[in-house]
Structures are given as C-alpha cells and as structure tokens.
Write a structure and sequence with these properties.
The chain is α/β, with parallel strands linked by helices. The chain has helices at 12-22, 47-59, 72-83, 102-117, 133-138, 159-167, 191-204, 221-224, 226-234, 265-282, 289-298, 301-332, 340-343, 355-365, 385-395, and strands spanning 29-30, 95-101, 122-127, 143-148, 150-151, 156-157, 174-178, 207-212, 238-243, 255-261, 348-350, 367-368, 374-376. The protein folds into 2 domains: 10-44 and 304-395, Alpha-Beta Complex (Aspartate Aminotransferase, domain 1), CATH 3.90.1150.10; 65-299, Type I PLP-dependent aspartate aminotransferase-like (Major domain) (Aspartate Aminotransferase, domain 2, 3-Layer(aba) Sandwich), CATH 3.40.640. It has a 7-stranded mixed β-sheet, with helices on both faces. The chain has a two-stranded parallel sheet with strand order 1-12. Helix 7 links the parallel strand 7 and strand 8 (207-212). Helix 6 runs parallel beside helix 7 (191-204) and helix 12 crosses helix 15 (385-395). It is globular, with a radius of gyration of 21 Å.
Length: 398
C-alpha cells in the first residue's frame, strides 16, 4: 500500500534548517526558523524555567496521566495570563480552558470544536498568515478563505481593505486574528483599529478565533492581550489559542492552551465536554511537564517576577535589533525603504525583496530566509548586522 505514496517536497522552513546546518561557512545566518536567540546565537533556557523545573521534579511523586483537559493549575493560570488577573473575564463561568500540545494543538482543538458545532463553518485567515495555520485548520475539514491584511507599500496593515472584506462576510463566519506580533509580517493592529474590528464583528455576528503565540514580545504582557480582552468583553463568543513556546522558551515541551468564551455558562460547559472528547480522540492525554513548569512560575510571585524580567529583556533585545537592522539597511541601501522594520513588532518582518534576491543571499552570502523574504529578526546578533546589511545591498545590486 505505501509504495503508492508520492514523495513530498520538504516543508520550506524545515528545508531551510537542513540547508543551514549543512552550510560550513562561518558567516552563515539563520533568519528562517522562528525561535528566539540571544547574542551568542543560542535559544537559552530561562532561569525562571530552570528554577521552576527543579521544584516540580523534586515535588513530583508520579508520572501517571493527567486528565484530557490537562493540568488544572496551568489552565487557571493561562486564563488569568490571557484574560487578565482582575477576574472579570478569567473567572467568568462563560470561559472554559483546555491544555493542548502547544499552540498548534490549541489551534487544532479549536478547529475541531468549530467543526463539531457546524461542519459548514468557514474560517477566514489573514493574507498572509502563519503557514501552519492552513493545514492545522483545514485538516479538521473546515473551509478556509482569506482576507487582506498586509500592505507591502507601507509595511503596515491594509486596514481599509481588511475591513471591507470582513464587512462582507456571512454571519457566524469565523475570523482568525493574531493577538500581537503578527506572523509573518510583524504588522499589528492599533488599539483604535482593534476597537473598529470589535464593532464590526459585533455588528456582523462574526466569531473571532485569536492566535496568541507571542504575548509579552510585542509591547508587553498586558498590551499584547488588550485586543483579545476587548473582543471577549464585547462579544458573545470567542476562541483563543495560546502558546508558551516563545514567551517561556518551552518550545520542545509543547505547552499550549485553548480558551473558549461561550454565550452562557451552559455553552462553555458544553464546549468543555466536547473538547475533552476531541482531545481524547486526537492524543488522549496532554503532556504535563511543561504545563507544570508554567503553573509553578505563574503561581509564585517570586518566579513570576523573575520570568517577567527575563521576558522584558527579550522584548528589549528584539527592539534593539530592529532599530539596528533598520539603521544598517538604510545606510547600506539608501534607495530602498526599510523603515517598516522599526515600526513592526515581534520576531518577524518581511524585507520586501524578491525570491531571486533571497536566493542570491542564500547561495552567495549564506543568509537563510524563506522565499517571501520573511526574516526572524531575533535570529540576528548585533555583531552580524553589518555583514547582513552589506549582503542585502550586494544582493540587490547596489
């Protein structure tokens, strides 16, 4: 049977990873893989995570399964982190939470829940969006469509085009929104734009599905969640997929959570029963180690403060890199505008160069990025920025 399977091309990101690792040039730069790196080029374990992990292991007496809904302390902590510690939303009986294997697992759980509610649901995703949104959501059987989001001319949000498209959607359509640090563009909605989106969703009876993978790496923990909290305060229903990969550095531990806001407490309870059944059928029980670490950090004032300080340092470093990259590219390529890099937030930006220039950068200068010129700014080091800017200038023929 298996001999009839076609060999598939490598995933673009995984293919870049393999090519980068095979490159022996000491100057090589990896801007493709979406992980945070420090000035030494490492993705470090946060000190708060190390401390919490030791405490968890010392106290742990069993490795038996957790329930399909996951670690209760973790779920409660994620409700407060995403929806606010004041309890107005996080303690609402209209909200349920289910631990998931990473943000990817949370997205898939949400998609399966939507399909169970209405198999004819259409999910509208931004153009562009994170590449894995498409297989994660459509793999559940849901139909996916696009709405305009990014304006290459300005490096910002094509907000008027976005609003026109959303205005024309049928009621009960689902709109996938990035809470902050839009991947792959780094172009985020302003507070005023979030309010306008909220008003439109309310008026058109649309359901938001919010992906929050970078809380704390844009403007800060509270600011990065402000848009989704606005929506959850005003709207009857919402889904929120949360990832702990980036802001806790727990990539390989696969730590995520799906939060569901229902129109009533009864609706939230029904959603929870559906989600535990879905989880049971997909992976049975979630992994506990990373979730226990997050619960330990967020349950301790001391550890939480230490974690926030480390996270603030990561965000500050990304902003410093953005400023340095924008300045270096402005000096090396004075006829091309790269100022959008400074205005954007999070780890990612589009350079706005052609696939051919990207190929030249990879083959002649050992600089690796995806063909659409998405770069992980956090993959740079201050010492590598002059080489990077010079390589871009040369590849552009300047």
């Amino acid at each position: 049977m298996l001999e009839h399977l076609d060999r598939l091309a490598p995933d673009p990101i995984l293919g870049l990873m393999a090519a980068y690792r095979a490159d022996s040039d000491a100057r090589k730069i990896d801007l493709g893989v979406g992980v945070y790196r420090d000035e030494q080029g490492e993705t470090p374990i946060m000190q708060a995570v190390r401390t919490a992990e030791r405490a968890v292991l010392e106290r742990q007496t069993t490795k038996t399964y957790v329930a399909p809904a996951g670690n209760p302390a973790f779920n409660a902590a994620m409700r407060r982190l995403a929806l606010g510690a004041d309890g107005a939303l996080s303690e609402s009986p209209r909200v349920c939470a289910v631990q998931a294997p990473g943000g990817c697992g949370a997205l898939r759980l949400g998609a399966e829940l939507l399909r169970a509610a209405d198999p004819h649901t259409t999910v509208y995703v931004s153009s562009p969006t994170w590449a894995n949104h498409v297989p994660l959501l459509s793999g559940s059987g849901l139909k996916l469509e696009r709405y305009p989001y990014y304006d290459p001319a300005t490096g910002g949000v094509a907000f008027e085009a976005m609003m026109r498209a959303l205005e024309g959607l049928a009621p009960r359509s689902v709109v996938l929104l990035h809470a902050s640090c839009h991947n792959p563009t780094g172009a985020d909605l302003t507070p005023t734009q979030w309010q306008q989106v909220c008003d439109l969703l309310q008026r058109r009876a649309l359901v938001p599905f919010i992906d929050m993978a970078y809380q704390g790496l844009g403007e800060g923990l509270e600011a990065d969640a402000a848009g989704l909290r606005l929506l959850c305060t005003a709207l009857p229903e919402a889904l929120i997929a949360v990832s702990c990969s980036k802001n806790f550095g727990l990539y390989r531990e696969r730590v995520g959570c799906l939060l569901v806001l229902g129109e009533s407490a009864a609706a939230a309870e029904a959603a929870l029963t559906q989600l535990t059944r879905i989880a049971r059928g997909l992976y049975s029980m979630p992994p506990d180690h990373g979730a226990a670490i997050v619960a330990e950090i967020l349950g301790s004032e001391t550890l939480r403060a230490a974690w926030r300080a480390e996270l603030d340092g990561m965000r500050a470093r990304i902003m410093q890199l953005r400023a340095a990259v924008a300045a270096a590219l402005a000096a090396a390529c004075p006829s091309k505008d790269f100022s959008h890099i400074l205005r954007q937030r999070g780890m990612f930006s589009y350079l706005g160069i052609s696939a051919e220039v990207v190929r030249v950068l990879r083959e002649q200068h050992h600089v690796y990025m995806t063909d659409d010129s998405r770069v992980n700014v956090a993959g740079l080091r201050m010492q590598s920025i002059p080489y990077f800017a010079a390589a871009v200038a040369q590849a552009l023929g300047r």
